[in-house]
Amino acid sequence: MIEFGFGISPSSRINLDDFDKEKWNKLVQIEPEILQCISCGSCCASCSGGVFQNVSLRSAILNIRNGKTDSAMELLKGCMLCGKCTMVCPRNINTRNLILSIYKTYSEK
Ligand code: SF4
Ligand code: SF4
Is there a domain that residue 4 lies in? Predict the structure, then answer.
């Protein structure tokens, strides 16, 4: 049967109690450039991985800021570390380094 019509979207409620301040401070310490991100989306628009998988650095950064680190890691899982996004970032963020630092910070238990 063909799926048709509207459905209920999952809740996008943000629980800031989930925000891991300790890890965020650690990430900002090793990669202060994350604070320069203006969520412009240029990195996603040029992303090689985004063509094949759901890769989005912009959304990952927003998710981290909202305490949704699992979703952030999911959004970076398909990153090939090609560095293309580094060349287009208007804030001159070394996005490749940033992605590696996010991995390092949030994969540690
Ligand atoms: S480094 Fe990762 S996020 Fe950046 S363009 Fe390449 S695949 Fe996309
Ligand atoms: S291109 Fe740079 S400033 Fe724009 S969303 Fe990506 S990381 Fe942030």
Answer: no
